[in-house]
Amino acid sequence: MNLRTPLFAALLCLPLFACGERPQTNGTASADTTLGQKVREATDKARKEMAEGNFSISSEGGTKVEVSPTGDLLINNTPVALNDSQRALVLQYRQQMMGVAEAGIEIGVQGANLGASAAGEALKGIFSGDTNKIEERINAEAAKLEASASKICDQLPALMATQQRLAAAVPEFQPYAKMDQSDIDECRDGHVNVR
Predict the structure, then answer these.
(1) Could you count the other beta carbons within 10 Å of the beta carbon of residue 187?
(2) What is the C-alpha separation between 147 and 152, in angstroms, rounded?
(3) How far apart are CA 68 and CA 53, in angstroms?
(4) What is the pLDDT of residue 37?
(5) pTM of the entire structure?
(6) 79 bridge partner residues
(7) Quick one: pLDDT at residue 90?
(8) Could you tell me the CA-to-CA distances from 16 to 9, 74, 113, 165 in Å, in that order?
(9) Per-residue pLDDT tens over the stretch 133-183
(10) What is the Cα gyration radius of the chain?
(11) What is the mean pLDDT of residues 115-131?
């Protein structure tokens, strides 16, 4: 990883968190930076909305497709008639989609923390002249972030299998079951795009 670009970007973000203090960890393994805390607060609200509200699957071509917390499949706000086994598949699909979204949210928080930490480390490096060790530490943290991101990709094969079973069981859903192997391959190549 070339450190120059991320370091420059992190330095540009410095005003966003320069006035804040690093929170106390109270012995926890993960401590958010001030910026990370702000991002986490915003994402906690998004998590709550996801858990309690309808989960949007598609709005392609003007058609709105959602899944409710109770397993209703809604197409343009109209519920699709489902039997118990279909509803169970809808709920499984919703849960898996939420798992992918949750992982993405957590990566966003980790990214904010990494940016803040990288900026702080860059400043230390400027004043100490010890940029090699700082680059190593930042690269190690970036590698952890990449490993977390790969966990999204690990969830996609099961999600695709559920999506295919749901499309087979509920014909109304079939036009919206667009995930295929190329999405999984792109994710593993570093380009997450779940449809």
Answers:
(1) 20
(2) 9
(3) 6
(4) 73
(5) 0.65
(6) 74
(7) 97
(8) 12, 40, 12, 46
(9) 667 777 777 777 777 777 888 899 999 999 999 999 999 999 999 999 998
(10) 21
(11) 66
Length of the chain: 195
Rounded Cα–Cα distance for residues 30 and 106 (Å) = 12
Q: Nearest CA to 86 among 27, 150, 172? A: 172
Q: Are 190 and 147 in contact (CB under 8 A)?
A: no
Secondary element (H or E) of residue 139: helix 131-169
**Sole residue written with tokens 């809604």:** 74
Amino acid (one-letter) located at 122: A
Which residue reads 């106390």 in tokens?
Answer: 24
Question: The tokens 């999405």 sit on which residue?
Answer: 183
What 3-state DSSP class applies to 79?
A: strand
Q: Write out pLDDT tens, residues 32-87.
A: 667 667 767 777 777 787 788 898 887 677 889 999 999 999 999 999 999 999 99
Pairing of β 78-79 and β 55-58: unpaired
Give the dihedral of Cα atoms 75, 176, 83, 55; nearest 10 deg.
-60
